[in-house]
Amino acid sequence: GENVEQHPSTLSVQEGDSAVIKCTYSDSASNYFPWYKQELGKRPQLIIDIRSNVGEKKDQRIAVTLNKTAKHFSLHITETQPEDSAVYFCAASIAGNQFYFGTGTSLTVIP
Amino acid sequence: DTAVSQTPKYLVTQMGNDKSIKCEQNLGHDTMYWYKQDSKKFLKIMFSYNNKELIINETVPNRFSPKSPDKAHLNLHINSLELGDSAVYFCASTPTDTDAGYTFGSGTRLTVV
Asked: Which of A35, A49, A82, A99 has its CA at 20 to 30 Å from residue A5's CA atom?
């Protein structure tokens, strides 16, 4: 089955700096890659996703890039704010099927 | 009008007891899942149901049994609870055969004492 690795496991940045979280996947058939943000005590919530026919997608301060050849994808957060502090999960799936989650990145934005 | 709702939100129980967690979604999704999130935050899939058919069972102990009375509900029943079952359990749903993210429920924090 699919194996998703996520790095780093913890990340601290100063407010206003950028944060980058990287994931790799093993199954070349995976074609859908969502990212989830989980605040303390809350449910994971979808913040952005990318499909395999797209190399990059941006939504305000958040962007995701995908390199199908290398089988890795990344989340970029610019101009970080304290409210960005949370655990972030990447996932990979074949459309409509089970998601395989990464192990999570705990992001702390220091005011 | 919550999309995916779980009850109860908190559950504290003694070892050896049997308990159930309920999940309902009003999104019209075809597939529902149960995930276990341990203290290290890892999201581990337990079950998924598609049109009332179990399609994934990831080496979960048979003390755990999913029950789906209809497409909108997927309940989780746990027999003979053990200390290691303490975790947060999330229900999620998604439409089938489309590119769409999961919608998660609010989670049930289970503590076995």
From this structure: A82
Residue among B94, B95, B107 whose CB faces A43 most closely = B107
Q: Per residue in B19-74, pLDDT tens?
A: 999 999 999 988 899 999 998 889 998 988 887 678 777 678 989 999 988 889 99
Whether residue A16 has pLDDT greater than 90: yes
Q: Which chain B residue's Cα is nearest to A106?
A: B41
Q: How close, in Å, is residue B93 to chain A by CA atoms?
A: 11
Q: What count of other Cβ atoms lies within 10 Å of the Cβ of residue A106?
A: 16
Instruction: Spell out the residues 6+ positions from residue A48 whose beta carbon is closer than 8 angstroms to its own.
Output: A34, A35, A57, A59, A62, A63, A64, A75
Q: How far apart are the first and last CA of chain A?
A: 41
Mutate which: A33, A48, A98, vs B, most B CBs within 10 A:
A98
Q: Are B47 and B55 in contact (CB under 8 A)?
A: no
Report the C-alpha gap between B28 and B44 in whole angstroms.
Answer: 24
3-state secondary structure of A102: coil
